Amino acid sequence: MSRLPIPGIKVFIDNDGLSALQVLLPLKLGWEVVGISASFGSSSANVSSCIPHYLGAQQPLLRKQETFDYWQDMFGSLVWKGAFAPAYEDSYSWSNITYDDSVAGAVAMVEAVKANRDTDPLYLWAAGMMTTVAQALSLYPGLVNDSAGLYIMGGYFDTQYAAALGTPIDPEAAQIVLTADWKTLVIGANVTNYLVPSQELYDRLIARAGSLDVIEDDLYFALVLSLLGSGNYTENSSEEALPFWDEVVSAFMVWPDLIERTSEFSMTVDTLFYSPFYGNLRIWDHDYAPMVVKTGSVTIVNKIDDARFYDLLIDTYFEDWRQYCATGKSQVLKY
């Protein structure tokens, strides 16, 4: 993990939603985001007109509502149900979402990898359900050789804790993706959970702007305001207090020297439907991995430079990206 960042590297992003900094952090260092696909499981958001946006997978490989409910009847209800939640709305049910509906996300991913394999192989970035990436692997197994590697936002790594908060709703897709022979497979797991908003961060953002009134009065700071809420951390909702899951993985993908500690494991996903641990990750030291179960070789990021991450976050929020599609550059806001 000692590779220093090199401007000009490319990435294709697949997620079940989208945070602005997940995209802006790569752009900040001169990376090209060649495409974004958004899948079932959460809401998405529109992005810059110069970054192609595709419709990702809209249902799991195998699971249906009936089988999902049946598993919960046997082993207990999950807190986070994704697309199986009764109140779930389709990712693209809002009128302000624009995307290329002539090409499926998996196909767009494959074509992007093929187009760059001989010159500058691109990275894949995935979070949420791994369904779109699994579809792409099914269409084109050469994805693992022709891309530079895969970065995953893996969420909670402690399986008992994860079970109480929600497990992946497409374990079969996750198993396909995690056990493919990627050149590089890096997962941000627990490290993505301890980097969270705080009153200290709020105070730094407000001080950078000059006052909370400045942020409230300038429409460009809508994303900052959605993070700050009232500016008082103790008054904010659970949504406003969520960790910087996606942003953390984007940051250490682009700036790998942020990484301070990693672990190397063999990994698989429990895909036995009649198991209370269905959907959970299983890991072993390479020397102790089972021989009859297909596993993948993964790097788990355990610790990054927290202070530098927050500095990058603040700096990126205070850059003006409105002319990026026209100029290919951002401008530092005079605050």
From TrEMBL:
The record's GO CC annotations read: cytosol
- Gene3D superfamilies to which the protein is assigned, alphabetical: Ribonucleoside hydrolase-like
Which segments constitute the Inosine/uridine-preferring nucleoside hydrolase domain?
Answer: 12-311
Q: Which GO BP terms, alphabetically?
A: purine nucleoside catabolic process
What keywords would UniProt list here? Glycosidase, Hydrolase
Query: Which family does the record assign?
Result: Belongs to the IUNH family.
The name of this protein is: Inosine/uridine-preferring nucleoside hydrolase domain-containing protein
